[in-house]
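One such shown below:
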Amino acid sequence: MSPTHTRKGGRLYRYYVSQVLLQGGANDAPHRRLPAGEIEGLVMAQVRALLHQPEVVVGTWRAARVEAPDVTEGEVRDALGRLDPLWDELFPGEHERIVRLLVERVTVGDAGAEIKLNLDGLAGLARDLAAKERVAA
Protein backbone atom coordinates (compact mmCIF):
# COMPACT_ATOMS: atom_id res chain seq x y z
CA MET A 1 0.00 0.00 0.00
CA SER A 2 1.13 3.51 -0.71
CA PRO A 3 0.23 6.69 1.15
CA THR A 4 -1.82 9.29 -0.68
CA HIS A 5 -4.20 12.12 0.09
CA THR A 6 -6.99 14.21 -1.35
CA ARG A 7 -8.70 17.48 -0.46
CA LYS A 8 -12.43 17.84 -0.32
CA GLY A 9 -14.23 20.90 0.93
CA GLY A 10 -10.97 22.40 2.18
CA ARG A 11 -10.24 19.34 4.30
CA LEU A 12 -7.28 16.96 3.88
CA TYR A 13 -8.01 13.23 3.79
CA ARG A 14 -5.04 10.87 4.10
CA TYR A 15 -5.27 7.19 3.24
CA TYR A 16 -3.35 4.22 1.87
CA VAL A 17 -4.13 2.70 -1.53
CA SER A 18 -3.36 -0.89 -2.56
CA GLN A 19 -0.67 -1.45 -5.17
CA VAL A 20 -3.12 -3.46 -7.30
CA LEU A 21 -5.48 -0.49 -7.49
CA LEU A 22 -2.62 1.93 -8.24
CA GLN A 23 -1.48 -0.28 -11.11
CA GLY A 24 -4.95 -0.32 -12.63
CA GLY A 25 -5.92 -3.76 -11.36
CA ALA A 26 -9.26 -5.03 -10.08
CA ASN A 27 -11.21 -2.51 -8.06
CA ASP A 28 -12.93 -5.16 -5.92
CA ALA A 29 -10.10 -5.84 -3.43
CA PRO A 30 -11.43 -5.66 0.15
CA HIS A 31 -8.54 -3.48 1.34
CA ARG A 32 -8.12 -1.18 -1.64
CA ARG A 33 -8.22 2.04 0.44
CA LEU A 34 -7.68 2.40 4.17
CA PRO A 35 -7.72 5.57 6.31
CA ALA A 36 -4.17 6.62 7.18
CA GLY A 37 -4.96 7.30 10.85
CA GLU A 38 -6.28 3.78 11.40
CA ILE A 39 -3.34 2.06 9.71
CA GLU A 40 -0.76 4.29 11.41
CA GLY A 41 -2.37 3.76 14.82
CA LEU A 42 -2.36 0.00 14.32
CA VAL A 43 1.26 0.01 13.17
CA MET A 44 2.40 2.13 16.12
CA ALA A 45 0.56 -0.04 18.64
CA GLN A 46 2.24 -3.13 17.18
CA VAL A 47 5.68 -1.48 17.05
CA ARG A 48 5.37 -0.40 20.68
CA ALA A 49 4.49 -3.98 21.67
CA LEU A 50 7.30 -5.45 19.56
CA LEU A 51 9.92 -3.24 21.24
CA HIS A 52 9.53 -5.34 24.39
CA GLN A 53 9.88 -8.75 22.68
CA PRO A 54 13.13 -10.52 23.72
CA GLU A 55 14.00 -11.52 20.14
CA VAL A 56 13.65 -7.90 18.99
CA VAL A 57 15.86 -6.69 21.86
CA VAL A 58 18.55 -9.28 21.05
CA GLY A 59 18.36 -8.63 17.29
CA THR A 60 18.62 -4.89 17.89
CA TRP A 61 21.56 -5.37 20.27
CA ARG A 62 23.42 -7.50 17.70
CA ALA A 63 22.80 -4.92 14.98
CA ALA A 64 23.88 -2.07 17.29
CA ARG A 65 27.16 -3.82 18.17
CA VAL A 66 28.31 -3.52 14.55
CA GLU A 67 28.88 0.22 15.06
CA ALA A 68 29.09 0.35 18.86
CA PRO A 69 30.80 -2.84 20.12
CA ASP A 70 30.70 -1.68 23.74
CA VAL A 71 26.89 -1.30 23.90
CA THR A 72 25.31 -3.87 26.22
CA GLU A 73 22.09 -5.79 25.80
CA GLY A 74 20.79 -4.09 28.95
CA GLU A 75 21.46 -0.64 27.50
CA VAL A 76 19.58 -1.57 24.34
CA ARG A 77 16.65 -3.01 26.34
CA ASP A 78 16.53 0.13 28.51
CA ALA A 79 16.73 2.42 25.46
CA LEU A 80 13.89 0.58 23.72
CA GLY A 81 11.86 0.69 26.94
CA ARG A 82 12.30 4.47 27.18
CA LEU A 83 10.89 4.95 23.70
CA ASP A 84 7.39 3.88 24.73
CA PRO A 85 6.71 6.56 27.41
CA LEU A 86 8.61 9.14 25.35
CA TRP A 87 6.31 8.52 22.37
CA ASP A 88 3.43 10.54 23.82
CA GLU A 89 5.71 13.59 24.22
CA LEU A 90 6.86 13.65 20.58
CA PHE A 91 5.46 15.80 17.77
CA PRO A 92 3.73 14.08 14.81
CA GLY A 93 6.71 14.79 12.56
CA GLU A 94 8.98 12.98 15.00
CA HIS A 95 6.51 10.06 15.08
CA GLU A 96 6.73 9.82 11.30
CA ARG A 97 10.54 9.93 11.27
CA ILE A 98 10.78 7.18 13.89
CA VAL A 99 8.22 4.96 12.18
CA ARG A 100 10.03 5.33 8.84
CA LEU A 101 13.26 4.40 10.62
CA LEU A 102 11.81 1.38 12.44
CA VAL A 103 9.32 -0.12 10.00
CA GLU A 104 10.56 -1.71 6.79
CA ARG A 105 7.21 -2.87 5.44
CA VAL A 106 3.54 -3.24 6.40
CA THR A 107 1.42 -5.79 4.54
CA VAL A 108 -2.35 -5.65 5.02
CA GLY A 109 -4.48 -8.70 4.32
CA ASP A 110 -7.69 -10.41 5.36
CA ALA A 111 -6.02 -11.84 8.48
CA GLY A 112 -4.70 -8.45 9.64
CA ALA A 113 -1.47 -6.54 9.18
CA GLU A 114 2.04 -7.95 9.10
CA ILE A 115 4.77 -5.56 10.20
CA LYS A 116 8.41 -6.12 9.27
CA LEU A 117 10.81 -4.14 11.43
CA ASN A 118 14.08 -2.65 10.23
CA LEU A 119 16.54 -3.87 12.88
CA ASP A 120 19.33 -1.61 11.57
CA GLY A 121 17.09 1.43 12.03
CA LEU A 122 16.04 0.16 15.44
CA ALA A 123 19.70 -0.40 16.36
CA GLY A 124 20.57 3.16 15.32
CA LEU A 125 17.78 4.54 17.48
CA ALA A 126 18.83 2.36 20.43
CA ARG A 127 22.47 3.47 20.04
CA ASP A 128 21.40 7.13 20.02
CA LEU A 129 19.23 6.69 23.12
CA ALA A 130 21.95 4.71 24.95
CA ALA A 131 24.56 7.35 24.09
CA LYS A 132 22.31 10.12 25.44
CA GLU A 133 21.85 8.14 28.66
CA ARG A 134 25.63 7.71 29.05
CA VAL A 135 26.18 11.46 28.59
CA ALA A 136 23.43 12.28 31.11
CA ALA A 137 24.90 9.90 33.72
